[in-house]
From TrEMBL:
CC per GO annotation: cytosol; nucleus
The organism's taxonomic lineage, starting at the top: Eukaryota, Metazoa, Chordata, Craniata, Vertebrata
Pfam families: UCH
Superkingdom field: Eukaryota
Domain USP stretches: 1-215
Organism: Donacobius atricapilla
Name of protein: UBP16 hydrolase
Length: 216
């Protein structure tokens, strides 16, 4: 879907992302890098229909791609619809010559995360005037081992469920006023073994998948 937005507001976010100053090796830094503004130049130029028509006349007169006009452009990926459940998948492999290696370093992640700096200013299901889109952590998947073999375990928070959460969010009636994580007990699950753990243990894990739920 192509939309013609005002260039002055097309790259605006719900909250000022420039004030973030995210810490290296943190989930905030990952999100900041993933949603950064990119300039498309040289071989990455954008095919512009308007420029092509202006240069060559109506589309019907364009007989080959050689006449198409490519132009410099800006690109930015932002969240346009805040999901009820936010799933973050960390890329934990890197190319090393002809082989893939697992990335083992710890990535910091919070109990409560604000998605507003990564949402478009016209985010569809955020109430007008809200500058926060808060999520509370409720699940973590961790992988131990190598690229060839390993074991998956999970951290899950047992907490009170809100059956109306999804409906409220989809109807745009969410008021993100909470700043504290949803209360509950964390458990570590490995195959058939389940044991209670502290939140500090969870936050020190080597996360592979993070699961957050939207706060009211």
């Amino acid at each position: 879907e192509v939309s013609m937005d005002d260039p002055e507001t097309a790259f605006c976010t719900l909250a000022n992302r420039e004030e973030l100053n995210p810490e290296e090796d943190s989930i905030h830094h990952c999100l900041y890098q993933f949603t950064r503004n990119e300039t498309l130049t040289e071989t990455n130029k954008l095919l512009c229909d308007v420029c092509t028509q202006r240069h060559c006349g109506p589309k019907s007169n364009i007989k080959s791609e050689k006449k198409s006009v490519y132009t410099n452009a800006k690109k930015q990926m932002l969240v346009s619809l805040a999901p009820p459940i936010l799933t973050l998948h960390l890329k934990r492999f890197q190319q090393a010559g002809f082989n893939l290696q697992k990335v083992n370093r710890h990535i910091k992640f919070p109990e409560v995360i604000d998605l507003a700096p990564f949402c478009t200013a016209k985010c569809k299901n955020v109430a007008e005037g809200n500058t926060k889109v808060l999520y509370s952590l409720y699940g973590v998947v961790e992988h131990s081992g190598t690229m060839r073999s390993g074991h998956y375990t999970a951290y899950v928070k047992m907490r009170v469920m809100n059956n109306h959460l999804s409906d409220l969010i989809l109807q745009g009636q969410v008021q993100a006023s909470e700043t504290e994580p949803v209360k509950g007990q964390w458990f570590h699950i490995s195959d058939t073994h389940v044991q209670p753990v502290s939140v500090s243990k969870v936050l020190s894990s080597q996360a592979y998948l993070l699961f957050y739920e939207r706060l009211l």
